[in-house]
Amino acid sequence: MPFSKLGLAKELQETLAKQNYSNPFPIQKASIPAILEGKDILGIAQTGSGKTASFVLPILQLFQGQKESKNRHLKALVLVPTRELAIQVNDVFQLFSSNLPTKLKSKAVYGGVSINPQMIALQGVEIVVATPGRLLELISSKALSLSELQILVLDEADKMLNLGFQEEVNKILALLPVKRQNLLFSATLSADLESINKNLLKNPVVIKVEEEEKNLDLIRQFAYLISEEKKGPLLRYIIKNESIEQVLVFVSSVHRADAVVEKLTKNGIEAFAMHSKKGQEARIRALNAFKAGKIRVLVATDIIARGIDIKFLPYVINYELPRSPKDFIHRIGRTGRAEEPGEAISLISPEDMHHFKVIEKKMGKIATLIDGNAIDLKGF
Ligand code: AMP
Q1: What is the layout of strands, in order, in the sheet containing 219-225?
Q2: What DSSP string describes 105-144?
Q3: Range with lowest mean pLDDT among 277-286, 298-307, 356-365
Q4: pLDDT at residue 190, rounded to an integer
Q5: Residue 152 has pLDDT above 60, yes or no
Q6: Could you tell me if the CB of 31 is within 6 A of ligand 1?
Q7: Ligand 1 center to residue 2 CA distance, Å?
Q8: Does the Cβ of 132 fall within 6 Å of ligand 1?
């Protein structure tokens, strides 16, 4: 079924075509018509399923022809758990609203950066994508009002609860007008989430999309057996030898991320670290530069294993394994997205072997084993 059958405005269809979105993904097929009809939605879907466009497109369309709201009064609010996701979702709003007849100004707001520029920039904004804490701060300083809100989206609601945002989310819900449309997206359904659903959603249309595991078929997996102290040289060998233009390298600690970057840089390979101890501005800059192909190697902890969408990333390397198989699947899921093939390489020390076997069993896939100790790493 093409996008033209979903009842979207021709300007939105033009942008879809320009972006090479030829057919709607399953979540889009199910949710776009339901949202256009004004229904509440419960979407069980992960990032990578196309859920962002599944709410952005109908929201923009529903506001066409409406008069502007009072200054700083939001028509739609999207709550997200992380700053990176706030920026990413807002980019999708801006992309699709660019050629619409009724222009809608949108903005991403999140903590960890100074509040004043955000307060100024909220002038005339009708759609906001926010992390909960910063939104509450902006509301209490009268930079924003939710009294005329028409549509609320909770994106990655399970993660929001895991990160301890429940109290803040409840405070925000108490500020909303009773009559509104609610769209809730989550990768899983927990007991906590069930209670939010019950209080929030009215006769929702429930949409379930297969887990991200389905993408694993697109990913070729290799595992290099290697002693712990030779992981550094082997990493540099792989990057140089396979002429890898861009790669995301996962490590398990902040300290390791910095150490790996230092070594790569010393050896003439341009690399940046991405972890929780980096300032917010630096994280955003690094991620954007990586997405734009300006950074060759991004060395990251699991903070970006989920939720972050990087188009056409051909390689992911696990320098160290994550503890849970689920996290492993999320990490390697950064490649092989949007139906493009990818390669995931794991560096496995003898001590990691047992754990790696557990991971392979859980994901139902076996990586091709290579004896890294047999490779001549002199000079790397
Ligand atoms: P999301 O789950 O919203 O993060 O989207 C995952 C990726 O799929 C993004 O790179 C989108 O640009 C892309 N995408 C979303 N919908 C479509 C579609 N219908 N056709 C092609 N690509 C899409």
Answers
A1: 271-274, 297-300, 247-250, 315-318, 342-348, 219-225, 368-371
A2: -EEEE-SSS-HHHHHHHTTT--EEEE-HHHHHHHHHTTS-
A3: 298-307
A4: 77
A5: yes
A6: no
A7: 15
A8: no
Q: Whose CA is nearest to atom 16 of ligand 1?
A: 50
Distance 23 CA to ligand 1 centre (A): 10
Rounded to whole angstroms, how far apart are CA atoms 114 and 107? Answer: 15
DSSP-derived secondary structure for 223-236:
EEE--GGGHHHHHH
For the CA of 24, the nearest atom of ligand 1: 19
CATH number of 3-208: 3.40.50.300
Ligand 1 centre distance from Cα of residue 302 (Å): 22
State the pLDDT at residue 205: 92
The label of the residue with tokens 């906001």 reads 128
Any ligand 1 atom below 6 A from CB of 187: no
In this chain, the answer to whether the domains covering 3-208 and 219-374 adopt an identical fold is: yes
pTM of model > 0.85: no
Segment among 17-26, 173-182, 246-255, 308-317 with least mean pLDDT: 308-317
Encoding tokens for residue 281?
């501005």
- What are the structural domain ranges in the chain? 3-208, 219-374
Q: Are the CB atoms for 254 and 301 separated by under 8 Å?
A: yes
Does any ligand 1 atom lie closer than 6 A to the CB of residue 50? yes
15 lines ligand 1 (CB under 6 A): no
286 against 46, higher pLDDT:
286
What was the pLDDT predicted at 213? 47
- Does the CB atom of residue 49 touch ligand 1 within 6 A? yes
Atom of ligand 1 nearest to the CA of 52: 3
Q: Is 322 in the pocket of ligand 1 (CB under 6 A)?
A: no
How large is the average pLDDT for residues 18-43? 93
What is the CATH code of the structural domain delimited by 219-374?
3.40.50.300
Q: Name, in order, each residue with C-beta under 8 angstroms of 349's C-beta and a sequence gap of 6 or more.
A: 225, 226, 227, 228, 231
CA of 209 to the centre of ligand 1 (A): 14
